[in-house]
Specification:
The protein has one domain. Helices cover about 10% and strands about 30% of the residues. The chain contains one helix and four strands. A hairpin with a 5-residue loop joins strand 2 and strand 3 (about 35-45).
Length: about 90
């Protein structure tokens, strides 16, 4: 006879998946090597952030053991320079 029984099975939690809607409320600060502010920013989520965010979402996959953001991609200097120098008109 087959019956349904719930059993606890140990698993290894690996990833904390964060998907936050910030809707024009994203804030960040870029600092130099001396912790001096290069850029304070508020607005849409910048293009260099990971995931299909459409400017409104912060999407981060965090390794629970290390705290590393696993979906972070390397940013080119050109992308940061454009972000820092962008003037909203």
């Amino acid at each position: 006879m087959e019956i349904s029984v719930m059993k606890e099975v140990p698993v290894q939690a690996k990833t904390l998946s964060i998907h936050m809607k910030v809707c024009d409320g994203f804030c960040c600060r870029i600092l130099d090597q001396d912790n001096k502010v290069i850029k304070d920013y508020e607005g849409y989520v910048p293009n260099f952030m990971p995931g299909e965010h459409y400017g409104d979402y912060v999407i981060l996959e965090i390794d629970i053991d290390t705290g590393n953001i696993t979906n972070w991609k390397s940013i080119k200097a050109k992308d940061i320079e454009e972000f820092i120098n962008y003037k909203d008109e």
